[in-house]
Design brief:
- With 114 residues, the protein is mostly beta strands.
- Helix content is 0%, strand content 48%.
- A six-stranded mixed sheet has the order 2-10-9-4-5-6, with no helix packed on it. Strands 1-3-8-7 form a four-stranded antiparallel sheet, with no helix packed on it.
- A hairpin with a 6-residue loop joins strand 4 and strand 5 (45-50).
- It is globular.
- The N and C termini lie far apart (37 Å).
């Protein structure tokens, strides 16, 4: 099982980024997928979840209305569109599949700063 996150970077407050996570090693289309984030000294935080067929999405209150999770089952990829970014969104962002807390990629760093 492998996850490769990309798309992070440095952005000013109010800006946007689109993260991608390419998954392999399992049948992507049957699993719900999640995006998490982590800052130093804090526990990993669940940001967003999408069901296997994209029919259902759930967001943390801190990102609701600003972030959108989506997926492309043909490409085995899950996305996180992040708009109206705030300094408190600064973190390393990770994706994984629901029910398997031990499988993680290297993450992608998002820094929101002026």
């Amino acid at each position: 099982v492998q996850f490769v996150e990309s798309g992070g970077g440095l952005v000013q407050p109010g800006g946007s980024l689109r993260l991608s996570c390419a998954a392999s090693g399992f049948i992507f289309s049957v699993y719900a997928m999640k995006w998490h984030r982590q800052t130093p000294g804090r526990e990993r935080e669940l940001v967003a979840t999408i069901s296997s067929n994209s029919g259902s999405t759930i967001y943390a209150d801190s990102v609701k209305g600003r972030f959108t999770i989506s997926r492309d089952n043909d490409k085995n990829t899950v996305y996180l569109q992040m708009n109206s970014l705030k300094p408190e969104d600064t973190a390393v962002y990770y994706c994984n599949r629901a029910g398997y807390a031990s499988d993680w990629g290297q993450g992608t760093q998002v820094t929101v700063s002026s």
